[in-house]
Amino acid sequence: MNLLFPQEKIVFNLPDAEIEYHPSLFNSEKSNELFELLKNEIPWQHDEITVYGKKHLQPRLTSLFGNDGKPYGYSNIIMQPNRWNPLLMFIKNEVEVICNENFTTVLLNYYRDGKDSNGWHADNEKELGRNPIIASVSFGAERVFQLKHNVTNQRQNINLENGSLLVMKGTTQHFWKHQIPKSSKEIGARINLTFRIIK
């Protein structure tokens, strides 16, 4: 059974960005299997973030895995990585075939329903280096991924499907922000894995 469909690729013609989308990195059967395994086997945590001096629980669950015990920090949260497990290594290896990169770290997000979200931000932390590559794999319910240019406010929406891979590289993180907005619709759970390289 074919799990990979690398010939299916959409390249977005956006200024100051290099973004490509593979709608079916994994087939639906394998994607559903991986979603259940991730939901049940990952040590999910529910961290507080500080926004304008006030602490709030993040509107999603997270987990971090990576090499060499290197922590990853964002929004005043310092996450310590778990050691890679066979499940994540399997997904990582498939992503690396497409991206031709060796990722050191993966940040996982578990969106339990449409109320869970991720606000406007860029993956531009200093430990990611200049022009980082971010490879984002989605399992479960389809969610809208929104991009916004920092200067022109140009926007782009991408529907992230079950088993899909979104790759952002080049100057994307310098010029664009992105988010997963809340939705009032009845939406099932989604798990997202964002692979990156910590310098």
What's the SSE blueprint?
Blueprint: E1 10-12, E2 18-22, H1 28-41, E3 48-51, E4 54-57, E5 61-66, E6 72-74, E7 77-79, H2 86-99, E8 105-111, E9 118-121, E10 134-140, E11 143-149, E12 155-160, E13 164-169, H3 172-175, E14 176-180, E15 190-196
Antiparallel strand pairs: 1-2, 2-13, 3-4, 5-8, 6-7, 8-15, 9-14, 10-13, 10-15, 11-12, 11-14
The helix fraction, in percent, is 10-25%
Name the overall outline: globular
Which secondary-structure class do the elements indicate?
Answer: alpha+beta
Give average pLDDT, whole number.
93
In this structure, how is the largest beta sheet organized?
Answer: 7 strands, antiparallel
If strands are numbered along the chain, what order do they take across the biggest sheet? 1-2-13-10-15-8-5
Overall radius of gyration: 16 Å
Along the chain, the helix and strand elements come as EEHEEEEEHEEEEEEHEE
- Supply the number of helical segments: 3
Q: What low-confidence regions span 5 or more consecutive residues with pLDDT below 50?
A: 1-6
* N→C terminal distance: 36 Å
Strand content: 35-45%
The beta-strand count equals 15
